[in-house]
Amino acid sequence: MKEIIKQLVEAYGPSGYEGQVTDIITELVKDYVDELTTDVLGNLIAVKKGTSGKKVMFSAHTDEIGFVITHIDDKGFLRFSNVGGLNILTLVGGRVRFANGTIGVIGKEKGDLKELDLDKLFIDIGAKNREDALEKVKVGDFAIAHREYNDLGNRIVSKAMDDRIGCVVLIEALKKISKPVHDLYFVFSSQEEVGLRGARTSSYAIDPDLGIAVDVTPTGDTPEAPRSEVALGNGAAIKVMDTSVIAHPKVKALLTRLAEAKGIKYQYEVLTRGGTDAGAIHLTKEGVPSGCISIPVRHVHTPSEMIDLDDVQACVDLVVAVAEDALADF
Amino acid sequence: MDIKKFLCEMSESPGISGYEHDLAQKISENCPWADETRSDKLGNLILLKRGKDDQNSRPKIMLAAHMDEIGLMVTKIEKEGFIRFSTVGGFDQRVLLAQEVVVHGKKDLPGVIGAKPPHSLTAEERRRTVSIEDMFIDIGFDSFEKVSQYVNVGDLITIKRDCLSLQGNYITGKAMDDRVGVAVMLECLKELAKREHIADVYAVCTVQEEVGLRGATTSTYGIVPDIGIAIDVGFGDMPGIPEYDSIKMSNGPGITVGPQVHPKLHERMVKTARDWNIPFSPEATPSPGGTDTYAMQVTRSGIPTMLLSVPIRYMHTPVETVDYTDVIRTGRLLALFIAELDHEFLEGLKCF
Amino acid sequence: MLLKRLSEACGGPGKESVVRDLIKQEITEQNLADEIICDAIGNLIVKKDGTKSDGPKVMLAAHMDEVALMISNVEKNGLLKFKPVGGIDLRILVGKSVYVGANKVSGVIGAKPIHMQRPEERNTPLGLNELYIDLGVRSQEEAERLVKVGDYAYFTTSFSEFGDNLYKGKAFDDRVGCAVLMEVLKERYEFPLYVAFTVQEEIGLRGSTVAGYTVEPDLALVIEGTAANDIPDSKEHQQSTNLGKGPALTMMDRSVIPNPRLVSEILKVADEHKIPVQIRRGTQGGTDAGKIQGTKGGVPVAVISVPCRYIHGPVSVMNKNDYNNTIELVKNFLKTLEQRGGVL
């Protein structure tokens, strides 16, 4: 599993430009699925056909937060805006990478750190002047945080765990399910970080009976963290609510029952800030009972997001359990 | 059936956004005027009263009042047995201190939101409000172990507040927003039972309005009405709110005008009110985000929508106060509006 | 001139009927459409059949509404309280004249004379509690004979040529988009063209939400009037667009990341036809494209904008060449699409 994680977190895939990620996933899953399609917004949809007539949609997003270049000045410095929720404190001195491999450093203008905003930051790609910069980068190009993958043993730290680790969970689960009961739609969704956009359209096209997002959730187990019971290593987090969705009571009950029955370690998650694909799925058409299985991640939306492999395994087991359940209530 | 009494019962019942199931059950048992009752996938309760027209040409009127209320949710249980919580929907943190609550764990447990005694407050503390993150609930157990026998992260908490009659026809309770709207729909159906109407009336008790108009989004998609009318509560006049930002109490509903209201529906509703001598207040709402109307209007290829607001005082506090006379007037106005609808009017709603 | 008439027409969010009627009349008179649909929330959707029976459904959209003020109360002394509909900087309001309601009753937004202000007052922007519209009446009764709660007030700016090859007027956001689409409608293509004049963009992209659902296009372009911030003391990287540098393409805003493929094809068309274009800097704001992209199973979209200074105020300014180049860019893109049999 570590190799797949490494391969996926290192890939380039800011919102709207997820092609490299979906290409990798396509290679990884193509032998295990009945159908594989990409839609207009860049969602990759892998289908395993069942016999019950019920449709279950799992969704993990392929995009990561990043940068979009808004201006290149005469000296060749780049100005940028955020793609998704960047944490400004983690930017200065960090590096970014463009689709063509160009690397840049984020620098800041003089001034008080308290008044720092994106307008005062710039990217230096080592260009001599504007023309030199234009050889490599144009206005409107997207970039991602450039940070290496580190294996810490049972824990791994990297950029873009949010939500490539969710993609890994779906890929691993998909390999394990041999005889699907229901039609299973594994959606590797686009543009989650800018407003759940890929999940919205893919869910409309699929029109599922049950929707499960697989995404990361911040933990409350670090020094003086915002108050939360979620802790790294305490198992799969079953979402109760966040700002985008209140998990359907039936879905919360289903996930709890399956976790208890299969001995999967779990914890409940109440998130007061942030949303997931489930927020878009549950409002599709006449409504879809939806919930979310969350992978606890420390340092979310920084270039150093940390996961625990046991949590990841627990999430894989829980996804498999849902896929193989009779789902009598849905 | 005494709808006023039932409004009190509804106000006292728990029904936090996402967890409206038991309340929906209660409402469906107390609505003898519906021909058909069903719940959809997100839990919206749909009370259908059929019109007299031929089935193929029967227009569909959707009424929407949300049955969910704002509430609290357990986020953490401290070692000493105190419960930390977050909110579901928008609470004024200042009203929470020292409230009695019910924690809906494995069983319902009474609790209080603790507050430091005034003696131990510093001058600085007195000037500041306590943030919700720093508040806690005391249920009388002194350890994590004892509390966690009954309570888990994600459990719901409601404010405990019995419904109370004030002078005249005023009543007060914790969840008038928007059980008042549900009462209006019941008054309307009751009134319609005495009249003829061509349209099928779908009275929808919507879910999850307080967290983003979610139930109205999906129920409107399912019903595809010819007209959508939301009934919600509006800001009743009170000290500290200027006249131009409030609706007069005891003077009938606010009939809203604004981008989310179809001009012809507005015109017609005003005419109905004038014809039948039902008092009302005009209400101008430029930013349409706050009610089910907003979600209904942009469903599918667009729905002509409007909004009636029943004035209540002290919204989003546990002492929401309404004049029940306004509820009756609003229900009657709605019924008369529906009874007078004809096909010609409905066809004129496009290309207005 | 149609752009002048569009600019001077008054149509706030939800009350676009004057603009809608103007466009409808023009289309009917010039016989520009094969079908006109008005929907329940006021969108005008104009269909022009293709010369071939199949081909992709191409949707073009521009919004008819402009920011406005809504009368929220008639005070006892006959003065009108109001609230903004859409994003308006309250600081620009004081000392302007307005038309109120469908009958365009004249009024002014007044303020206490400078002589009577305390020094600190001059430095504090006036808020909604201090601002009001004066119709010159003495009582509530008199005022209520002229206007009612819910009426809109609009700036009284007239359209004119200006400076060096510029236009000035109100509501260029997005009447300029409407004007561009009227020009495009004069041509017929092989594929069916759906031109949507949408409502309520300024208060949450609401018209396009349902117009997209109704049309269900295979491809969509949104034509906007976007902010040009090329003014003194604004650093180069903060100037979202510049007047005179051609139509602006959006790479990302708060509502949409346009389809990369579609954007690069439009850039190629601009290059081939020597039409100047600029990439919009900054990612502020949202457009109808966001909602159209999210329609049903998803739609490829792009946004082409005419740069305008001082939008959402009483007077905006734009460049004639930018306007004409936007028309050329859209037409040439559609022709290119046609030559390729409707495939990108």
Could you walk me through the main structural features you see in this protein, from its secondary elements to its overall organization?
The complex is a heterotrimer of chains A (330), B (352) and C (344). Chain A is α+β, with helices and mostly antiparallel strands and 330 residues long. Chain A has two domains: 2-64 and 159-324, Zn peptidases (Aminopeptidase, 3-Layer(aba) Sandwich), CATH 3.40.630.10; 66-146, Beta Barrel (Elongation Factor Tu (Ef-tu), domain 3). Helices cover 26% and strands 28% of the residues of chain A. In chain A, α6 (249-262) links the parallel β14 and β15 (266-270). Chain B has two domains: 3-69 and 174-347, Zn peptidases (Aminopeptidase, 3-Layer(aba) Sandwich); 71-159, Peptidase M42, domain 2 (Elongation Factor Tu (Ef-tu), domain 3, Beta Barrel), CATH 2.40.30.40. Chain B has ten helices and 17 strands. In chain B, the strands form two sheets. In chain B, strands 1, 2, 3, 10, 11, 12, 13, 14, 15, 16 and 17 form an eleven-stranded mixed β-sheet that branches. A six-stranded antiparallel β-sheet of chain B has the order 5-4-9-6-7-8. In chain B, a hairpin with a 5-residue loop joins β4 and β5. In chain B, α1 packs antiparallel against α5 (176-192) and α7 crosses α9. The two termini of chain B are 41 Å apart. Chain C folds into two domains: 2-66 and 170-339, Zn peptidases (Aminopeptidase); 68-155, Peptidase M42, domain 2 (Elongation Factor Tu (Ef-tu), domain 3), CATH 2.40.30. Helix content of chain C is 27%, strand content 24%. Chain C has helices at 2-8, 17-29, 119-122, 140-146, 172-184, 206-215, 260-272, 288-293, 320-339; strands spanning 35-38, 44-48, 58-63, 68-74, 80-85, 97-100, 105-109, 133-134, 152-155, 160-162, 166-169, 193-198, 219-227, 248-249, 278-279, 301-309, 316-319. In chain C, β16 and β17 form a beta hairpin. Chain C is globular, with a radius of gyration of 21 Å. Chain C starts with a helix and ends in a 5-residue tail after the last helix. At the B-C interface, β15 of B face β4, β5 and α6 of C.
